[in-house]
Amino acid sequence: MDKLPHPLAAFFDPLTGAMTPCDRYRQVRLGDMRGYYLAERQDALATVEPDLLLYEVYELDVPAKDGEMIPCSTVIKPGHIGDEYFMTKGHYHRNGGAAEIYYCLRGEGFLLMRNGYEVVVEPMKPGSLHYSPAGWAHRSVNTGDADLVIFAIYPANAGHDYGTIKEKGFGRRIVRGTDGIPMIVDEPDV
Ligand code: M6P
Ligand code: ZN
């Protein structure tokens, strides 16, 4: 019989989004986002440092087994590449039966969700709670001038499929208008 996972505990700071201790912490920099930003097609990326930190992800080290759940937090920095705001890569779950819960603690932005043909864009602000059902891809975007801090819980056996989003996108982009106001625009070539 499989050994039962051991209970875990950590401190989660709702202001910074940091989890301590955290065995699974990663930073995503601009250089990791090749193929995701519109600016890439407009040659606007060449002027930005590939080392630029876009977001951080903290996760508890839960075994990827049926029935287990991963608590995690994402901290997206403020800023934009060309006119497109800093955002996560966005993904479908490899396990098509896995949903995800998002809870925004700090900052402002949008959550994009897509289930193949249908697209939903929800505003995020402190206290907003979001349910991304099984079969829906999700991406968060920071449109504010401070960190966007999001807490999430998802099934430990969900897995991440980045390829479909990288290829097809979300059907919508969140861009900074000339007046500095965020705009939801249709994906130009999808
Ligand atoms: C949330 C969860 C994580 C995800 C992270 C960053 O915390 O959905 O599973 O890894 O956001 O998003 P992405 O993996 O799309 O870059
Ligand atoms: Zn997910």
Report the major sheet.
6 strands, antiparallel
CATH architecture type = Sandwich
Low-confidence stretches: none
Which value, in Å, is the CA radius of gyration?
16 Å
Small molecules in complex: 6-O-phosphono-alpha-D-mannopyranose, zinc ion
Please work out how many helical segments DSSP would assign. Answer: 2
What is the assigned CATH homologous superfamily?
Jelly Rolls
Quantity of strands, as a count: 17
Biggest sheet: strand arrangement: 3-4-5-14-9-12
Structural commentary:
With 190 residues, the protein is mainly beta. The chain has a single domain (11-186), classed as Jelly Rolls. It is built from two helices and 17 strands. 6-O-phosphono-alpha-D-mannopyranose is lined by residues 57, 72, 74, 88-91, 100, 152, 154, 160.
